[in-house]
Amino acid sequence: MEKVNHAPQENHVFLSIRQLTVSGLLAGITIFLGLTGYGFIPLIVMNATILHIPTIIGALVAGPKVGALVGFLFGLFSFIQTLRAPSLLLQFALQYNPFYDAFICIVPRVCIGLFAWFLYKHMPGREGIRVGIAAVGGSLCNTVLFLGSFFLLVGAPYAASKGISVEAVGATIMGIVGMNGVPEAIVSGVIIVPVVTMLKKSGWKMK
Fold first, then answer.
1. Which string of DSSP letters, residue by residue, matches 91-105?
2. DSSP β-bridge partners for residue 33
3. Which chain regions cross the lipid bilayer (predicted)?
């Protein structure tokens, strides 16, 4: 009788133990910043944020799944922030359509880590330059998708409620991108490059 060998089946898990560890650490930082408010810098029309930094770090040291997960937590806390102390723009989005507000807060943030990981994965050049470009690109992705989602979903009704043109709303949003998005991107690069470099040297590998 022929003996049948049963090879052990490979377990396919969504996140490895190492990825879960990184997710837990960065989610803890995100939760702390989100709950305490230290991750949001209140401005006149919106809240500038540094909460995207853990998301980008997660994507670069542990892969896109971790980046998407931490980004989701970032977006969730951003949505909670609009319920507690909304900025001018998100207060209108929340009152106009809470589902639009949730989309604006969460979906762009999930995309941050995915975009940063994509840039790092496919960008030629030295390691530090690739990390820097991914950090800046991920931060700008946050700003552009967040404000772009607001403009596409509620830009017209917001303009009507204020008695201004849609073009004026678009110009204001472009101004916010310049005043907030560019400085946030620079800060992201300054912080993320040494942190990711240190983590990779200590043994963390991107999937």
1. HHHHHH-HHHHHHHH
2. none
3. 20-45, 57-80, 100-120, 132-153, 173-199
Check if the beta carbon of residue 122 is closer than 8 Å to that of residue 136.
Answer: no
Q: pLDDT per residue over 159-169, tens digit each?
A: 999 999 999 99
Cβ-proximal residues to 129 (8 Å cutoff; 6+ apart), any chain: 123
100, amino acid identity = Y
Cα-trace Rg, the chain = 20
Q: Alpha helices, DSSP H only, in 85-202?
A: 88-96, 98-122, 127-162, 166-176, 182-201
Q: For 37-66, what is the mean pLDDT?
A: 81
CA separation, residue 150 to residues 69, 106, 108, 109 (Å): 22, 12, 11, 13
Of 150, 55, 163, which is closest to residue 111 (Cα–Cα)? 55
Q: Which domains occur in the chain, in start order?
A: 17-200 (1.10.1760.20)
Cross-strand partners of 47: 42
In 3-state terms, what secondary structure has residue 131? helix
